[in-house]
Design a protein that fits this description.
8 strands; single chain; 280 residues; globular; 4-stranded parallel β-sheet
Amino acid sequence: MKKIILFVILLSVLGCETKDEKDTIFVSVLPIKYFAEQIVGDYAAVEVMVPPGMSPATYEPLPAQIVKLSRAKLLFTSGVPFEKVWIKKIESSHPNLKIRASYDGIQLHEGHSHGDEKDHLDPHLWTDPVFARQISQNIAQSLIELFPDHKSVFENNLKSLEIKLDSLDRQIKSILVDSDNTAFMIFHPALGYYAERYGLTQISIEQHGKEPSPKQLRNLIKIARDKGISQIFVQEQFSRTVAESIAGEFDIPVNVINPLSDDYINNMLLITKKIAGEHE
């Protein structure tokens, strides 16, 4: 009898905890988390698949994340490499989870590949604030479909976010207009959409997802010299060794950036200032 009473009490407690818990939304990478949090506000908790410091190219979800996904309402993908394998697995094991592409309606460009992978599409759309605006609209629409009672809140939050993104676009243009730097060298080519939006040339050290061969390295050194490259960028998730060897040829600095930061607005301004050659 005591066991039965204890069991009933436990079910009651668990039921209360479940009732009080927020709904959960998952995103694949941190910048998308920023957009989702800005729009959803306090109505849901936003979790990210790829944590800080990890690469979306090689990441494998943790068992605890897979368990959390079973309680999540929605997952926003962003086109990063790990999704190609894992989204199919997640779909088959989580049939009630709604999966939406945050980049729906935006044409991805062919970009860098990883290892032997061919025809890889560059997923880093969020580095372009104009595309970030469209991503945010997609997120808002999916949230409205899932939580229609909060439509007006999501729409108002989206408007506030769009104002921030429009301001960011103007600020980036203002910073770059006074800069003589029209090209930049980066280890992993994550700023292609950004470069195209603002009329810059991105020069990738990484070749088809691999470090450059000696011949390719010599060619990169020549390009850096011809383009007057004054600094080289590396991401937190990648080795600095090759970048430092090229930088050593010209005595120029190697700057660490993080296109995967969830502090989206400030981070894109920081990257822009570094590209423009501004010093803090």
